[in-house]
Amino acid sequence: MPFFDHPANADFLLPIIKLPLLLISSIFQVVLAVGPIGQIAIIAVAIALFTKNIMGPARP
User: Fold this and answer.
1) Greater pLDDT, 59 or 40
2) Residue 2's pLDDT is what?
3) Angstrom distances, CA of residue 8 to CA of 18, 33, 36, 37, 42
4) Are 30 and 22 in contact (CB under 8 A)?
5) Interatomic CA distance for residues 53 and 11, integer angstroms
6) Cα separation of 46 and 31, whole Å?
7) Are 43 and 31 a contacting pair, CB within 8 Å?
8) Where are the transmembrane segments (predicted)?
C-alpha cells in the first residue's frame, strides 16, 4: 500500500495542540492556587454572571 510506505511528519500539530493545553493548565493552576475559599468565590461569581444574563437587567 503506497500510503503507508513512508511515515508522515506530524511536527506541525505541536503548536496547534500546545495553545489549548497551555490555557487549560493555566486555568487549573489558578484554581489550585486560590484554595478552597477562592474556588467557592470563583463559582459564586460565575453563577452571578450567568443568572444576571438569564434574568436580564434589574428593574426598579
Assistant:
1) 40
2) 60
3) 20, 41, 46, 49, 44
4) no
5) 42
6) 13
7) no
8) 20-50
Q: State the cell numbers at 56.
A: 436580564
Locate 18 and state its grid cell: 500546545
* Three cell numbers, residue 47: 453563577
Give 29-38 pLDDT, tens digit per residue: 988 898 889 8
Cβ-proximal residues to 31 (8 Å cutoff; 6+ apart), any chain: 38, 39, 42
Compute CA distances 26 → 23, 38, 53, whole Å: 5, 16, 26
Is 15 buried (19+), middle (13-18) or exposed (0-12) by CB count in 10 A? exposed
Q: Which three cell numbers stand for residue 5?
A: 510506505
